[in-house]
Amino acid sequence: MTVSAHTSPPSTILDVRDLHCDRGGTEILKGVDLAIPAGGILAVLGANGAGKTTLINVLSTLIPFSSGSVSVAGHDLGSDPTGVRNSISLTGQFAAVDQELTGTENLVFFGRLAGLSRSAAHDRAAELLTEFDLGDAADKRLSDYSGGMRRRLDIAASLVVPPALLFLDEPSTGLDPESREALWTQILDLRNQGMSILLTTQYLEEADQLADRVAVLRDGRIIAVDTPQNLKSAYGRHRCSVSFPDHASAVTAGQILTERGYTSRKNDLVVGDTGVVELLVRSGFTELNPLLQAIDSAGLTITDVGMTPPSLDDVYFALARSGAQTPQGPAGGGDR
Ligand SMILES: Nc1ncnc2c1ncn2[C@@H]1O[C@H](COP(=O)(O)OP(=O)(O)OP(=O)(O)O)[C@@H](O)[C@H]1O
């Protein structure tokens, strides 16, 4: 079975506008706008308490929202929650599968719940176990699975009937690096088959690896949304390290850079004790080259130059520092 639930899916699978959600008298979501095009992966990135789980719970019809609008695969959440429910699957942070049943038994159970006949449920279970690299563990109880295997089975269980939109709430939380990478491969396979996915994560690397678009959620608001690459270009800076034969040369180079506006106060210049100057620049070698020329013209010898491109970590911390309150960049889809 391929993972395409609709013969002609709408081009936008998820459309969220000005979504608010109050819980226990507190406003948790404060006007969220999001969109996912068919076949896209959007990562919602946020620290503990940002509102990720609340967002997923609202979008998957588990808790009510206060105002705004949500459309999933053309179904309006307010007026047609059943249509939304039939279009989605949710894999939450806590596995919904039964530890005392085998892999096959769990998937057959979910298949039967979804209305498949006994033989169709068995066929689909076998297909999913193979797809998720669990064929050898089909007859083992889940209590004997590793954390990574359980998480894969949990995702497989959400795909017994392929949804138009899959929600993955912090899919790799608690997994070791090897299991995490295996899971990422599975998620990318799903995307390659045309599945649309919204995942929440606290891991910048996960968002970078998996998502076409990253939305940064802070305190119930989306403060930035764009491709990982654009976010890195807009908010990230290249880390340069320029080496000198001695500390005195590095100090002089530091003075030259300070005259050009780079300061330790802004955290974009560090003169180390070992003759190395660390510098943050926005536009790579275009910005660095004239600085190197100025240092060279002052008669200093440069022994080495290294540059590391910006990471999503840099973006995250830059956004956290900036106190950004409004969305940056288009809140919709598009390819990487
Ligand atoms: N039912 C509730 N009543 C009151 N406050 C709530 C309720 N549910 C969540 N909150 C609060 O809303 C905020 C967002 O919670 P949420 O679980 O959505 O965050 P999160 O980004 O998923 O965090 P984590 O990564 O820790 O799961 C938190 O401050 C939480 O304490």
Chain-wise SSE layout:
Layout: E1 12-23, E2 26-37, E3 41-45, H1 52-59, E4 67-72, E5 75-76, H2 81-85, E6 88-91, H3 103-113, H4 118-131, H5 147-158, E7 165-169, H6 177-192, E8 196-201, H7 204-210, E9 213-218, E10 221-226, H8 228-235, E11 238-243, H9 247-259, E12 269-271, E13 276-281, H10 284-297, E14 304-308, H11 312-322
Parallel strand pairs: 3-8, 3-9, 6-7, 7-8
Antiparallel strand pairs: 1-2, 1-4, 4-5, 9-10, 11-13, 11-14, 12-13
Helix pairs in contact: 3-4, 3-5, 5-6, 8-11
Bound molecules: adenosine-5'-triphosphate (ATP).
Adenosine-5'-triphosphate (ATP) binds next to strand 2 and helix 1.
Task: Describe what this molecule looks like in 3D.
By secondary structure, the chain is an alpha/beta fold. Among the domains are: 12-87 and 163-233 and 317-322, P-loop containing nucleotide triphosphate hydrolases (Rossmann fold); 237-309, Alpha-Beta Plaits (2-Layer Sandwich). Helices cover 35% and strands 25% of the residues. The protein has 11 helices and 14 strands. The protein has helices at 52-59, 81-85, 103-113, 118-131, 147-158, 177-192, 204-210, 228-235, 247-259, 284-297, 312-322, and strands spanning 12-23, 26-37, 41-45, 67-72, 75-76, 88-91, 165-169, 196-201, 213-218, 221-226, 238-243, 269-271, 276-281, 304-308. A 6-stranded mixed beta sheet has the order 6-7-8-3-9-10, sandwiched between helices. The protein has a 4-stranded antiparallel beta sheet with strand order 2-1-4-5. The chain has a 4-stranded antiparallel beta sheet with strand order 12-13-11-14. Helix 3 (103-113) packs across helix 4 and helix 8 packs across helix 11. It is elongated and about 80 Å long. 39% of the residues are buried. It binds adenosine-5'-triphosphate. The site of adenosine-5'-triphosphate (ATP) has 13 residues, from strand 2 and helix 1.
